Amino acid sequence: MITVGPEKLARFARDVLLKAGTTDGQASATVRAMTHASLHGIDSHGFRLLGYYAEGLVRGFVKKEPNVSIARPRKAAVLVDADGGLGHFPSFLAMEEACAIASQLGIGMAAVKNSTHFGAASAYTICASEAGYIGFLACNSGALVALHGGTAAFHGTNPISFSAPLRGKDPFLLDIATSAMSWNKMLEHREEFGDLPEGVLLGQHGDFSDVAEDSVLAPLGGENFGYKGAGLAGMAEVLSAMLTGMNLSFEEDGKEAGPSKLGHFMLAIDPKTFIGREAFEERLTSYLGAIASTATENSRVYAAGGPEWEARADRMERGIPVTATAQKEMAAAGERFGIPFPS
């Protein structure tokens, strides 16, 4: 494994995406999201996806120059049409619009339609908190996850992210798949460690398996409590795909790269609407302090986002670790366009 500075990786990734034919704005937003993920230790959704995005542009199942547009169906809502391009640019735009509405009305909502994969969901909710708002996001994706008690892929990994702002400090930041493990995280884990934790994959007869090619992901909650993950995935499905008229997860193949019609849903909430900004931050500070106080000499206890802040501090200083497999895949994407992988 090697380490590469985030600036070098960002420049490399941007050059590859531009050579693949997308616009400056699309490339910059995609690199912004990948940088967020890799800096915060979410490597499964970071720079290792560069080859996947470039392939989509080259093969044409992701538009190179989409006509992204905004409709305003209600005073508190915007609907962003991604027009089949990379999912990152319209998602950043949607959250920015939601925050702008929240500054006036206390709450703003935004949806994105005709979208594709957009990386780590927390890239967008953290934008809300950096602007002083509570952020929420739900999204669906192609079918990869069984229902509780089922054996066939039905839901996507359908991520949910939530953030709460704290001026001058890192926010509370939750970013989870509604499956036992996200698909990209599962692939990354197998590359690095070989074996998977128990309870991640289900075989054809409902038994837990370690063969990704013939398996589906189990829902969050495992063998006995997977109904919780399945229910949360359904909530994400309703908010993202149904509200926007996009494909439901079972209408898309999660394993095959191809055209997507995904939906995303976002909220921005001004915390001063109910309790006031200072009182809200005082309560959040107290809450985070109480969590930290439960740690012992032999255990570390984190609030949501804690490991990500530690990873960011380390990676800003030492660089982003890149596995041999990820390096090979990114280098291949660069070689396609005559762009050397950074050393």
Topology:
Elements: E1 2-4, H1 6-19, H2 24-39, H3 50-59, E2 69-74, E3 77-81, H4 88-105, E4 107-115, H5 122-130, E5 134-139, E6 145-146, E7 153-155, E8 160-164, E9 172-176, H6 183-193, E10 201-202, E11 208-209, E12 216-217, H7 222-244, E13 262-269, H8 277-293, H9 306-318, E14 320-322, H10 324-335
Parallel strand pairs: 3-4
Antiparallel strand pairs: 1-14, 2-3, 4-13, 5-8, 5-13, 6-7, 8-9, 10-11, 10-12
What does it look like?
42% of the residues lie in helices and 18% in strands. The protein is built from ten helices and 14 strands. Strands 2-3-4-13-5-8-9 form a seven-stranded mixed β-sheet, sandwiched between helices. It has a three-stranded antiparallel β-sheet with strand order 11-10-12, with no helix packed on it. A two-stranded antiparallel ribbon has the order 1-14. α1 runs antiparallel to α2, α3 packs parallel to α10 and α4 packs parallel to α5.
